[in-house]
Design a protein that fits this description.
It is built from 16 helices and no strands. The chain is mostly helical. It has a single domain, classed as ABC transporter involved in vitamin B12 uptake, BtuC. α2 crosses α3. The longest helix is centred in the first third of the chain and has 30 residues. The model has no long low-confidence stretch (mean pLDDT 91).
Amino acid sequence: MDRMPAWADAILVPLFSIVLAAILSAGVILAIGESPVEAFKLMVDGALMRSSGWGYTLYYATNFIFTGLAVSIAFHARMFNIGGEGQAMIGGLGVALVCLFIPWPHWSLALLGATVGAALFGAAWAYIPALLQAKRGSHIVITTIMFNFIAAAVLNYVLVNMLRPTGAMEPATARFPEATFLPTFQDMFATADNPLFRGAPANVTFFIALLACVAVWILIWRTRLGYEIRAFGHSETAARYAGISPVKITVVAMLISGGLAGMMALNTTMGEAERLVLNATEGAGFIGIAVALMGRSHPVGVLLAALLFGFLYQGGAELALWTNIPRELITVIQALVILFTGALDNMVRVPLEKLFLAIRRSPKSAG
């Protein structure tokens, strides 16, 4: 067998891709007259060396875990869900309706209700593209991209004309009732003598994201439905022969994917803003694509990739604050990571496969 071991595919290929992206990024930083070494030290200090920095890193990572898992589910069914951004927007609408119009006695119950609302609204927004793919053959990439724009228009209309408080100018809902406020890491872990995570938006939703990773692992590798999704993704013809319905798998996989993307709103809408605002997703739906690619559509890989992108987001904010490096450079770095882990994946994979093939054959040659 000419392919490299599974551990090398899961670890070495993404690692070398990150190294190549880092080298090119260092060149860009040098070109604008800054030191790559000092920039990296500042990113590490701002994102990892202080509890407040960790709080922001984990806040961003939480968003990327949900959207990365959403893309991964669709990947396993051989679909490219580009609609995580729109599904997260509509999921935020579900969170807002649950929090504003149901009198919750405690945040824990509100979190359960909001989780259901976010998942249902996100899944509902993924349902029509899924049905069009399954029944009409409409390409899922095109329909989910278009639904992102429709979601933005719908959310804008609802906020301006239906949910905006009387007399308010900003397109946003009223603040949620205090009983729905989620505990932040500062609330959970800080003490009078040790004020950890001061001002950071990381909250209990991070643990919901970790549970989602476990749930996706169980679903994909320990259930019949997960087996059917993977079988369909490997070969539609073989899946049909085995009695697996392509329509069912397409729709169900996209419903789960949309539901996970919608749950991202728990972190941004319920946990951080405590109200629904426009542009709360901030591109996390698209970052989820890179997270899924780098994480090889495995929940553990998605978690690690989400932490990396959380580090890049928070570290980039530190660079923009303390240096002349623009915030947009982090977008360039993210684009390079996506480029090497996606479009140029074979540039890293092929040499490694040849290396492992040579290692396997070397004892035979010696003999």
